[in-house]
């Protein structure tokens, strides 16, 4: 049974059962590594290794601070209780006095021992806030091999999808790959070969699951088109992010001019400008930026003025009698 401040504690057993790993076998609670002894590093010094404690036990209760009342509360687990005389006063005596565990870092609990499972699941090492938190991590964590396998499988599937999208015959076309890389904020994409573009995309997309998921949600639609337009405009010095002011500005003669939008410190600069151009812009700045970029791109493709003058001189010499 469980007690809260000496009174029977009723938790939502149905919801707790739903949160447990699926299956019919015993529940396995793994002792958190932070409570194991760390071995000395091997001679190679390449990995940290942990030893299991020879044995360990925990008190059958823990304290926490109620977030609503700020009162200190106590949760106690017990199997049996009886009343004993203590200094002429009848008081309850709870058993066990300690919860003992064998010489293993794993604790096996039968599924019908819900109170013990709930107690171990929520047991913090030193609780000053409700149950286990990031500041006060749990003494145990509940092993879920099926869930672990599912997570690993999802990671593998996601990585395979990224690889197929980048390198597969039915994956991204070259133009699409270039636009997505530009949407990441990669400069001067036009100067890269197709293989360089795809290698760089793969490097960015496989950093972690978040990066892979982000990559797979990017299609050559409005958001990617806008981000690609932003990067191309920045490459051609149509616009610039001015770090000292945290603003995107138009450039005139290479110098910052009118402000497009401000960026807060916790915002990604390209995401912020793309959001502004997609949803907040009332003055058709996107069309203006695209027009200026096309003009700048055309100018960049033309011969330099000196070369143009040389061509005129040659032409004049050719027509002279």
Describe the protein:
With 321 residues, this protein is α+β, with helices and mostly antiparallel strands. The chain folds into three domains: 2-143, no CATH class; 150-218, no CATH class; 221-321. The chain is built from ten helices and 16 strands. It has a four-stranded antiparallel β-sheet with strand order 2-1-8-7, covered by helices on one side. The chain is elongated and about 105 Å long. Residues 126-136 and 310-321 have low confidence and may be disordered.
- Give the overall shape, derived from the CA principal axes: elongated
Structural class: alpha+beta
Strand order of the largest sheet: 2-1-8-7
Oligomer classification: single chain
Helical run tally: 10
Largest sheet: 4 strands, antiparallel
The proportion of strand residues reads 15-25%
**Overall tally of domains:** 3
Low-confidence parts? 126-136, 310-321
The helix-strand sequence is EEHEEEEEEEEEEHEHHHHHEEEHHH
Bin the helical content: 25-40%
Which characteristics define this entry?
single chain, 321 residues, alpha+beta, four-stranded antiparallel beta sheet, three-stranded antiparallel beta sheet
Compact summary:
The chain is α+β, with helices and mostly antiparallel strands and 321 residues long.
Topology:
Blueprint: E1 2-4, E2 7-8, H1 13-19, E3 27-31, E4 37-38, E5 50-51, E6 56-58, E7 61-65, E8 72-77, E9 80-86, E10 89-95, E11 99-101, E12 106-109, H2 114-122, E13 140-142, H3 145-167, H4 174-183, H5 194-205, H6 209-217, H7 222-235, E14 239-242, E15 247-252, E16 255-262, H8 269-280, H9 285-301, H10 305-319
Antiparallel strand pairs: 1-2, 1-8, 3-12, 3-13, 4-5, 6-11, 7-8, 9-10, 14-15, 15-16
Helix pairs in contact: 3-5, 3-6, 4-5, 4-7, 7-8, 7-9
């Amino acid at each position: 049974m469980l007690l809260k401040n000496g009174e029977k504690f009723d938790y939502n057993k149905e919801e707790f059962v739903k949160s447990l790993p699926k299956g019919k076998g015993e529940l396995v609670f793994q002792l958190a590594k932070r409570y194991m002894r760390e071995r000395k590093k091997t001679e190679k010094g390449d990995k940290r290794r942990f030893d299991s404690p020879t044995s360990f036990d925990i008190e059958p209760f823990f304290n926490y601070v109620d977030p609503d009342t700020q009162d200190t509360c106590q949760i106690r687990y017990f199997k049996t209780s009886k009343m004993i005389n203590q200094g002429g006063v009848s008081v309850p005596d709870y058993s066990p006095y300690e919860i003992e565990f064998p010489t293993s870092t794993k604790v096996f609990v039968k599924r019908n021992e819900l109170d013990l499972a709930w107690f171990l699941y929520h047991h913090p090492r030193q609780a000053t806030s409700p149950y286990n938190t990031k500041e006060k991590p749990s003494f145990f964590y509940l092993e879920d091999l099926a869930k672990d396998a599912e997570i690993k499988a999802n990671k593998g599937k996601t990585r395979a999808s990224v690889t197929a999208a980048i390198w597969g015959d039915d994956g991204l076309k070259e133009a699409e790959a270039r636009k997505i890389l530009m949407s990441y904020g990669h400069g001067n994409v036009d100067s890269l070969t197709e293989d360089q573009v795809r290698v760089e995309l793969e490097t960015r997309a496989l950093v972690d699951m978040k990066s892979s998921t982000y990559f797979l949600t990017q299609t050559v639609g409005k958001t990617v088109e806008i981000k690609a337009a932003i990067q191309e405009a920045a490459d051609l010095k149509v616009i610039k992010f001015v770090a000292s002011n945290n603003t995107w500005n138009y450039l005139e003669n290479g110098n910052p001019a009118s402000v497009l939008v401000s960026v807060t410190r916790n915002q990604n600069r390209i995401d912020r400008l793309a959001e502004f151009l997609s949803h907040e812009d009332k003055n058709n700045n996107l069309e203006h930026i695209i027009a200026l970029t096309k003009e700048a791109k055309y100018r960049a493709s033309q011969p330099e003025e000196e070369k143009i003058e040389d061509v005129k001189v040659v032409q004049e010499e050719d027509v002279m009698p």
